[in-house]
């Protein structure tokens, strides 16, 4: 059986000089000062880094690559995200659009409405995590609003246990964080004897709460960057139960913005996100969708089936029909389909026309540069 991760001060927040600015992406220097037990270091840190490196062809992408991939002029753009400064979403935004300004929002709905009201240029939403299996989150915001997906970014999420400076692990009685972060670290927290767990809105919000209330018996799960930002100690890192923990985020823009109108550079490989809604016969619709793309040799990068019967509250899926004066329509069955290429490609157009004859409704959610990189913040 694996040994429990040991917990002891790893590095204090005063070692800020070891890091470069929060606008940069890099691994933090890995010194001989062991942050966690060798076991955990090996499983979480080394394996995850090796996997990141393998996937990225041996290179952890740097933010400078971003402009090349997407061709966006990002300085001066404002990106709305849900959470407090220092949340993973904020770092994802800064990695996707180097030099951008960020706008912290209380709820996802506020981030969306900031873009709709012209207070922000983009909203960023986490939509899936390798630790949650196939499930998609936050798609309701995509479907109910008239915004376009203009960019994707995948971030390696390294969870750390943070506490007020000088607090020893033995003094900790409870841990607070985003519910997913608590769930993703459940086994490690049990091994550390931290059974009292309280969810808060986001990881950085937990850190902020800890700091402003000077909670000496409480730890927060968040990123090492949040520790730096709020001046907390990192007691352990690589806390996630699966060493491979990647969250995919989508960036949304108003349909009238330049980003929505602009096609990524011709050299970039494109990806299109769509939603197909229908009233029944899931299997036959699914087969027709698959056949429409496969006969035209168009690759799918994602296919998710969502039925209201399988939802906890059995509610239908609401989709804004942008062509019908913004009418919200309810559907019991929905397929999310991401395919390679642009919807303007004649073959893709044919496939979508064919699917539209079977389905009740098809909406293109956006076409953007496919970014298969996994960015590592450490
Ligand atoms: O709480 C944060 O820091 C977030 O950015 C949100 C979020 C998420 O909702 O997926 C992002 C990544 C982590 O897996 C945990 C939480």
UniProtKB/TrEMBL annotation:
Highest taxon listed in the record's lineage: Eukaryota
CDD domains, alphabetized: ACT_CM-PDT (cd04905), PBP2_Ct-PDT_like (cd13631)
Domain (Prephenate dehydratase): residue spans on this chain: 78-254
A cellular-component GO term for this protein: chloroplast
Biological process (GO), any one: L-phenylalanine biosynthetic process
UniProt-recorded Gene Ontology molecular function terms: arogenate dehydratase activity; prephenate dehydratase activity
Pathway: Amino-acid biosynthesis
Pfam families (UniProt xref): PDT
Keywords, sorted A to Z: Amino-acid biosynthesis, Aromatic amino acid biosynthesis, Lyase, Phenylalanine biosynthesis
Cytoplasm in keyword set: no
Protein name: Prephenate dehydratase domain-containing protein
Protein's organism: Zingiber officinale (Ginger)
Highest classification ranks of the organism: Eukaryota, Viridiplantae, Streptophyta, Embryophyta, Tracheophyta
């Amino acid at each position: 059986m694996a040994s429990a991760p040991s917990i002891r001060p790893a590095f204090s927040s005063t070692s800020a000089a070891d890091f470069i600015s929060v606008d940069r992406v890099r691994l933090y220097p890995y010194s001989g000062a062991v942050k966690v037990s060798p076991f955990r270091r090996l499983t979480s840190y080394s394996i995850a880094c090796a996997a990141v490196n393998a996937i990225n062809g041996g290179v952890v992408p740097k933010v400078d690559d971003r402009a090349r991939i997407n061709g966006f002029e990002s300085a001066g753009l404002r990106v709305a995200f849900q959470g407090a400064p220092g949340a993973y979403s904020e770092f994802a935004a800064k990695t996707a659009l180097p030099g951008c300004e960020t706008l912290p929002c209380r709820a996802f709905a506020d981030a969306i409405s900031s873009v709709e009201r012209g207070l922000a240029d983009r909203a960023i939403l986490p939509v899936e995590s390798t630790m949650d299996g196939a499930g998609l989150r936050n798609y309701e915001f995509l479907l109910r609003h008239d915004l376009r997906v203009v960019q994707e970014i995948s971030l390696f999420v390294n969870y750390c246990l943070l506490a007020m400076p000088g607090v020893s692990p033995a003094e900790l009685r409870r841990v607070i964080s985003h519910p997913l972060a608590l769930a993703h670290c459940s086994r490690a927290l049990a091994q550390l004897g931290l059974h009292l767990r309280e969810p808060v809105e986001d990881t950085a919000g937990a850190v902020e709460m800890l700091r402003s209330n000077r909670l000496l018996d409480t730890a927060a799960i968040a990123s090492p960057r949040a520790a730096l930002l709020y001046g907390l100690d990192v007691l352990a890192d690589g806390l996630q139960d699966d060493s491979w923990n990647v969250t995919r985020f989508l960036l949304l823009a108003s349909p009238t913005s330049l980003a929505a109108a602009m096609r990524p550079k011709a050299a970039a490989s494109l990806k299109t996100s769509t939603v197909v809604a229908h009233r029944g016969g899931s299997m036959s619709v699914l087969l027709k969708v698959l056949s429409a793309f496969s006969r035209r040799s168009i690759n799918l990068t994602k296919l998710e089936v969502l039925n209201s019967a399988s939802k906890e509250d059995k509610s239908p899926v609401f989709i804004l029909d942008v062509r019908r004066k913004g009418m919200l329509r309810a559907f019991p069955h929905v397929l999310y389909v991401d395919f390679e290429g642009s919807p303007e490609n004649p073959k893709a157009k044919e496939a979508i026309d064919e699917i539209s004859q079977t389905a009740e409704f098809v909406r293109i959610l956006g076409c953007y540069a496919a970014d298969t990189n996994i960015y590592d913040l450490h």
